[in-house]
Amino acid sequence: MITAILVMALGAVILGAALGYASIKFKVEGNPLVEKIEAILPQTQCGQCGFPGCKPYAEAIAEGEVDINLCPPGGIEGVRKLADLLGREVKPLEVEEKPKQIAIIDEQTCIGCTLCIQACPVDAIVGAAKQMHTIVESLCTGCELCIKPCPVECIRMEIISEDIDNWKWKYPVIEIKQVKQIA
């Protein structure tokens, strides 16, 4: 019995060491530019840019296949940040910029079909089959992908009013350095 346990433990150690070595030896380096671009994008995974998520859009931008002004949730501020990073010209958005919004489910009308849950790219909808669903507001990105599949039209978008928790600078922040005066 103890021999079997020792053999299994030795096999696990050898296999673990082999996997550890392989992960170091065959490590695939990602494109650091793609990672920087993706960090600027809003991570809504909404597909409004024509790509299935923010990472594929970031990869296409890095390859020079598409322009930097296709992301409505990122807005013109996102375009400015991408232009600064990539040394490109700031262009207006291809589509109209929308105010920040979240989905609201009319829980009295919801039939629990789960189609909205399947459509949500960030798992912001909670519920079970044939049970009422609800939105986790802190996770909702306002991508509107849950509206179309709803058969009873119980989902609406509500604009989030600007308050201390979600405001942003409307203009680029200029860093002011303090200059010492010689007296």
Automatic annotation (TrEMBL):
<dbReference type="InterPro" id="IPR017900">
    <property type="entry name" value="4Fe4S_Fe_S_CS"/>
</dbReference>
<keyword id="KW-0411">Iron-sulfur</keyword>
<feature type="binding site">
    <location>
        <position position="146"/>
    </location>
    <ligand>
        <name>[4Fe-4S] cluster 3</name>
    </ligand>
</feature>
<dbReference type="GO" id="GO:0051539">
    <property type="term" value="F:4 iron, 4 sulfur cluster binding"/>
</dbReference>
<feature type="binding site">
    <location>
        <position position="143"/>
    </location>
    <ligand>
        <name>[4Fe-4S] cluster 3</name>
    </ligand>
</feature>
<keyword id="KW-0813">Transport</keyword>
<dbReference type="GO" id="GO:0022900">
    <property type="term" value="P:electron transport chain"/>
</dbReference>
<feature type="region of interest" description="Hydrophobic">
    <location>
        <begin position="1"/>
        <end position="23"/>
    </location>
</feature>
<dbReference type="GO" id="GO:0046872">
    <property type="term" value="F:metal ion binding"/>
</dbReference>
<feature type="binding site">
    <location>
        <position position="140"/>
    </location>
    <ligand>
        <name>[4Fe-4S] cluster 3</name>
    </ligand>
</feature>
<keyword id="KW-0249">Electron transport</keyword>
<dbReference type="Pfam" id="PF14697">
    <property type="entry name" value="Fer4_21"/>
</dbReference>
<comment type="function">
    <text>Part of a membrane-bound complex that couples electron transfer with translocation of ions across the membrane.</text>
</comment>
<protein>
    <recommendedName>
        <fullName>Ion-translocating oxidoreductase complex subunit B</fullName>
        <ecNumber>7.-.-.-</ecNumber>
    </recommendedName>
</protein>
<keyword id="KW-1278">Translocase</keyword>
<dbReference type="InterPro" id="IPR007202">
    <property type="entry name" value="4Fe-4S_dom"/>
</dbReference>
<dbReference type="Pfam" id="PF04060">
    <property type="entry name" value="FeS"/>
</dbReference>
<feature type="domain" description="4Fe-4S ferredoxin-type">
    <location>
        <begin position="131"/>
        <end position="160"/>
    </location>
</feature>
<comment type="similarity">
    <text>Belongs to the 4Fe4S bacterial-type ferredoxin family. RnfB subfamily.</text>
</comment>
<dbReference type="InterPro" id="IPR016463">
    <property type="entry name" value="RnfB/RsxB_Proteobac"/>
</dbReference>
<feature type="binding site">
    <location>
        <position position="49"/>
    </location>
    <ligand>
        <name>[4Fe-4S] cluster 1</name>
    </ligand>
</feature>
<feature type="binding site">
    <location>
        <position position="113"/>
    </location>
    <ligand>
        <name>[4Fe-4S] cluster 2</name>
    </ligand>
</feature>
<keyword id="KW-0997">Cell inner membrane</keyword>
<keyword id="KW-0004">4Fe-4S</keyword>
<feature type="binding site">
    <location>
        <position position="120"/>
    </location>
    <ligand>
        <name>[4Fe-4S] cluster 3</name>
    </ligand>
</feature>
<feature type="domain" description="4Fe-4S">
    <location>
        <begin position="29"/>
        <end position="88"/>
    </location>
</feature>
<dbReference type="InterPro" id="IPR010207">
    <property type="entry name" value="Elect_transpt_cplx_RnfB/RsxB"/>
</dbReference>
<keyword id="KW-0479">Metal-binding</keyword>
<dbReference type="InterPro" id="IPR050294">
    <property type="entry name" value="RnfB_subfamily"/>
</dbReference>
<dbReference type="InterPro" id="IPR011005">
    <property type="entry name" value="Dihydropteroate_synth-like_sf"/>
</dbReference>
<feature type="binding site">
    <location>
        <position position="54"/>
    </location>
    <ligand>
        <name>[4Fe-4S] cluster 1</name>
    </ligand>
</feature>
<comment type="subunit">
    <text>The complex is composed of six subunits: RnfA, RnfB, RnfC, RnfD, RnfE and RnfG.</text>
</comment>
<dbReference type="GO" id="GO:0005886">
    <property type="term" value="C:plasma membrane"/>
</dbReference>
<feature type="binding site">
    <location>
        <position position="116"/>
    </location>
    <ligand>
        <name>[4Fe-4S] cluster 2</name>
    </ligand>
</feature>
<feature type="binding site">
    <location>
        <position position="71"/>
    </location>
    <ligand>
        <name>[4Fe-4S] cluster 1</name>
    </ligand>
</feature>
<feature type="binding site">
    <location>
        <position position="150"/>
    </location>
    <ligand>
        <name>[4Fe-4S] cluster 2</name>
    </ligand>
</feature>
<keyword id="KW-1003">Cell membrane</keyword>
<keyword id="KW-0408">Iron</keyword>
<feature type="domain" description="4Fe-4S ferredoxin-type">
    <location>
        <begin position="101"/>
        <end position="130"/>
    </location>
</feature>
<keyword id="KW-0472">Membrane</keyword>
<dbReference type="InterPro" id="IPR017896">
    <property type="entry name" value="4Fe4S_Fe-S-bd"/>
</dbReference>
<keyword id="KW-0677">Repeat</keyword>
